[in-house]
Amino acid sequence: MGALAELLISRPRRTLHAAADAAVLAGLLEPMHALGRDRFACLLPGHVDADLAHVAPYLIALHPGSPIVDWIDARCELSWGYVIESELALNVLQRHLRRFAETRGPRGEEWWFRFWDPRVLRCLPDILHPAQAEGFMHGIERIHLVDGGSTASLAWNAREGRMAFESSHAAVEGAVAHAGI
């Protein structure tokens, strides 16, 4: 069993979505479309044409036993994205996250802010001001980085007013406590 499948099993009764980069996960569109149109949504704002669809980032509803979980787990060595734990519905979470996809460079030029890239996500606690971090994490309980068998979780700590990573051990303890096990 892969790290993604294990994460889903360890978080019973939780709503989990993958933020997955099709530019990294070559061939993602086929298994994603097999889920059904209501199970995924593009994270880029506006209409995405066919030329961009195969390299766009997507939000994908995850459930234990879903074929896409094994498909992604088979590619776990890639920096494919991460798992978002949130009670927000897929379309609401998509709308929230899309607001962060575009930003401005120092000369006012438009840039993509690749928040779906786990390498970028790892930097967020160091580069976002508390209000920005709180805005990004609004409605998101935790973000799980799943890298080739290990898991780390990013959470917003409202009491301390900061975003911070937890070890996989702390995240599992939290899941067990939440599940009442």
Question: Can you put this structure into words, describing what you see?
Answer:
There is one protein chain. The C terminus is likely disordered. It contains 9 helices and 9 strands. The longest helix is centred in the last third of the chain and has 12 residues. The protein is globular. With 181 residues, the protein is of the alpha+beta class.
The succession of helices and strands, N to C, reads: HEHEHEHEHEEHHHEEEH
What share of the residues does DSSP label as strand, in percent? Answer: 15-25%
What proportion of the residues is helical, as a percent range? 25-40%
Q: Strand order across the biggest sheet?
A: 2-3-1-4-7-8-9
- Tell me the major beta sheet: 7 strands, antiparallel
In total, the number of domains comes to: 1
- Report the count of strand segments: 9
Overall average residue pLDDT:
87
Distance between the termini: 21 Å
What is the count of DSSP helices, taking H or I runs of 4+ residues? Answer: 9
Radius of gyration over all CA atoms, rounded: 16 Å
The quaternary organization reads as single chain
Specify the overall morphology. Answer: globular
What structural category arises from helix and sheet content?
A: alpha+beta
- Unreliably modeled segments: 169-181
